[in-house]
Structure formats: structure tokens, C-alpha cells
Amino acid sequence: MAPEVSSLDFTNAVTLQGFTIPSLAQRRAETEVLLKDGESFAIAGLIDQQVIETMDKVPGLGDIPILGKLFRSRSTQKSNDELLVVITPHLVRPLSAEEKAKLPDMPAAFLPAVADQKGKPSKSKGTPPPATPANQPEFVGPRGQQIPQQ
Asked: How many CA atoms, within 13 angstroms, populate the side-chain half-sphere of residue 116?
């Protein structure tokens, strides 16, 4: 196992023709582990500690030698990030020649069928749903429509 994390590093950036191109900071860890079916393994330690210091000033007034400090503000933002990877292997046995792989089930329909909606009572009290011709699409649900089969 060899996890790797890359991030942009503006401290070692290069400026070409007015464009700032940051470098990449990479952190890696590499290990070999023997695990049985269902056992878990965790690896951590890819830590990223960043300190970003920003200085804002009022244009012109912030440049005055002594009084300029009244028109400047400095902020520091610290962040610590750690990558934690957890692995749990599950061994898969091969199928014999007589066995067939089970196909996944079809997903449920996004919208209910028109016939399902006709059987339900209307949300408004006492007013039946408006009738539509059989060859026109009928709106069902809040987001879509279903075209009747012909």
C-alpha cells in the first residue's frame, strides 16, 4: 500500500510572464501488510500543517512609516489535516463452470407510474384530478412526466 497526498505549495512558486505557478508538495507512505478476509488495517501520518499569514492595508495610508501601522491588519490562519486510510479486504471465490453470476437488480423507477397515481386520492379536498386525453403525456409527481404506453 502506498498512499500519496499532493497539494499546491505557493512558498516555492515560480512567476513567469506575470503568472504565478505553484509547486507541488507531496507526502508519501509505503508499507506491506498481510491481512485475512475481513480484517482491517489503518495507516495514518500524512499530516499537512499550513500557516497562512495575510496583511491588508489601506492604500497610501498603510505605507506611512510610523502611522501606517494604524491602517494595517494582519491575520493568521492555521490548519492541520491528516489523511487516515482504512483497508478491509474481502476475498472473492471464483465461480464454478455451472454457476452463473447474479446480475444486479434493476433500480426503482424515478417517478411512480401513472396508474399508481390515479388510484391515490387527490391532495386538494373534493376536486378530482383534471382529465387528460390518453395520447398526451400526463404529469406525475413534482418533477417529471411519464408518457403513457400505446
From this structure: 7
- Provide the phi-psi class of 134: left if phi over 0, else alpha when psi is between -120 and 50, else beta: alpha
- Beta-carbon contacts of 105 under 8 Å, excluding residues fewer than 6 positions away, are none
Q: Is 9 left (phi over 0), alpha (psi -120 to 50) or beta?
A: beta
pTM: 0.45
Q: How far apart are CA 144 and CA 150, in angstroms?
A: 19
| Beta strands 19-28; 4-16: pairing state | antiparallel
Q: Can you tell me whether residue 77 is helix, strand or coil? A: strand
Nearest-5° Cα angle at 138, 136 to 141: 165
CA distance 143 to 137: 14
Q: What's the pLDDT tens digit per position in 76-128?
A: 999 888 888 898 998 888 888 888 888 777 666 666 666 555 555 555 555 55
| Segment holding 116, helix H or strand E | helix 114-119
- What amino acid is encoded at 62 in this protein? G
